[in-house]
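Good morning,

Attaching, inline, the backbone tokens for the sequence recovery test we're adding to the shared suite. The designed sequence is right after.
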């Protein structure tokens, strides 16, 4: 997803998912799963910044 529109849609969907968590939210990531390496979500650093501001 390198197009700006696709990136913004992905960011919007992540925001909706996070804000729908009513009581608690666990965010995890796996470096290696199903025989392949997986990069962390590009939005995890953004979430850390938002949560720090609360």
């Amino acid at each position: 997803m390198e197009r700006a529109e696709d990136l913004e849609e992905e960011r919007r969907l992540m925001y909706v998912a996070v804000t729908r968590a009513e009581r608690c939210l666990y965010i995890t990531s796996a470096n290696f799963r199903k025989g392949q390496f997986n990069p962390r979500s590009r939005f995890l650093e953004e979430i850390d910044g938002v949560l720090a501001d609360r």
